Here is the input.
Amino acid sequence: MNKILIVGATSAIAQAVARQLAELEKDTAQFILVGRNVDRLESIGTDLSERFGCVATSVVANLDALDDIDALIQRCWDTYGGVDIALIAHGDLPDQAKCENDWAEFSRVYNVNALSYMAVMHALALRMEKVRQGTIAAIGSVAGDRGRKSNYAYGSAKGAVAIFCQGLRNRLFSKGVHVLTVKPGFVDTPMTAAFDKSGPLWATPDVVAKSIVKGIVSKKNTIYTPGFWWLIMTVITNIPEMIFKRLSL
Ligand SMILES: NC(=O)c1ccc[n+]([C@@H]2O[C@H](COP(=O)([O-])OP(=O)(O)OC[C@H]3O[C@@H](n4cnc5c(N)ncnc54)[C@H](OP(=O)(O)O)[C@@H]3O)[C@@H](O)[C@H]2O)c1
Here is the structure.
């Protein structure tokens, strides 16, 4: 497995995954890095090539443009003649209050966090099922496990991605294609720059990347990362709705 597509390659978590996959695959890895900022993509690619001897190609795209995604994936597919591993990692953590007051903002955020993920997975699925191999890893969130008033614009999009992944996994299992749903908890990245990061629940991108790489290699279905989030979310999803709706979460 060495043709690696990373959509949202400038994300801090994606960069950590790329480095760890590069270390694993060494100079057999060929990366296709998709993102909005060409300079940052080039610098990530140069780092992968200088440190690990990998090949990297940058593809500039704004994932907001849903109608362009099939052509984007075809271009990525053609770069090295297929894709073995695809990580989908872009995302936008919105201001919940703004989404509640502005439908255009809710729709923009849902578009980038849910529909663009589905469009990428849809395009990859059509190609991977034909060659009967490949891995699609999509980064969801623990926020997608239960709707809360403080972040349901983001959470409902991540929840939709998780359900989409379940269906896709069921469809593609018999075709030899692996679908991994990644559910991180709180991760110290630019996305969470405004948060207070003290406390034991925060993880680094490297820790999260390690479990993503392990999930890809061992063909897991869904992972919570760090793993203790499975326990937290089991408790949260089991609180009866008549109690949950009264909580301030
Ligand atoms: N950090 C957390 O606590 C946390 C928790 C759970 C899940 N996640 C998920 O983990 C994934 C990675 O996030 P991160 O924490 O690594 O954050 P990050 O470093 O801020 O990365 C977010 C990335 O999304 C890209 N992006 C946003 N909108 C885009 C668009 N329309 N087109 C193309 N790229 C776009 C950004 O590109 P630019 O560089 O061009 O801005 C950036 O590379 C996301 O899906 C996020 O929702 C994060």
Notes: The chain has nine helices and nine strands. Residues 8, 10-13, 35-37, 62-64, 89-92, 112, 139, 141, 184, 186-187, 189-192 surround NAP (CB under 6 Å). The beta strands are 3-7, 30-35, 55-60, 85-88, 134-139, 177-184, 186-187, 202-203, 222-225.
